[in-house]
Amino acid sequence: MKYEMPVLETERLILRRGLYEDYLKVYEYDFSRLRNIAGEFEFVKNDPEVVKKFIDYADEDYVLDYILFLKDNNEPIGNVTIDRYDSSNKSLEIACNLHPTYWKQGYMTEALLRIMRYIFDNLDIDNIRYGYVEENFRSKALNDKIGFKYNGYSIGTYFRIGKDIKAIETIMSKDEFYEKYGKNKNK
């Protein structure tokens, strides 16, 4: 079974499935090198074959993968992937990437809130999980701005650039979302 993935809109964005060319633009850089962990911040171009794996994954069952397009010029600027259903708490995980050219302009907040609205209003989902790497201050700031809460769970630790990196998972319930953002707006 595949989730239905309708086109969604915000004030400045159109959110829809993208083509390979859109993924190439969104994933121009290796996002793992842009997290600024321990001072690491490099604009390293992605291999197109790596990008192909992202679009192949988006074709799998139980995956929603929205590309963010600017309304004014149809430029693809980022993506939001929704996957990894957990039946124990009826949740999906949400992950996102935004091309560095568009950082700090509110696009990802706008997109995530619209997609979360769609999920909570239309799918049988009670919670949305958000994961980020502990030292990635941009992802943590987005997490805090939207209102995800730490649930005491670490996804794990991995070794990179000479240090242990901790991945954190946060969560927001449907009730918390509706309390913070209102119920059934912009269906």
Strand order of the largest sheet: 1-2-3-4-5-6-8-7
Radius of gyration (CA) equals: 16 Å
Distance between the termini: 22 Å
Which regions are unreliable across 5 or more consecutive residues at pLDDT < 50?
Answer: none
- Coarse shape: globular
Which terms would index this structure?
single chain; 187 residues; alpha+beta; Aminopeptidase; eight-stranded mixed beta sheet; 8 strands; 28% helix; globular
Describe the structure.
With 187 residues, this protein is α+β, with helices and mostly antiparallel strands. It has a domain at 8-130: 3-Layer(aba) Sandwich (Aminopeptidase). It is 28% helix and 33% strand. It has 5 helices and 8 strands. The chain has helices at 20-26, 48-58, 107-122, 137-146, 174-181, and strands at 8-9, 13-16, 64-70, 76-86, 91-98, 127-133, 149-160, 163-173. Strands 1-2-3-4-5-6-8-7 form an 8-stranded mixed beta sheet, sandwiched between helices. The chain is globular, with a radius of gyration of 16 Å.
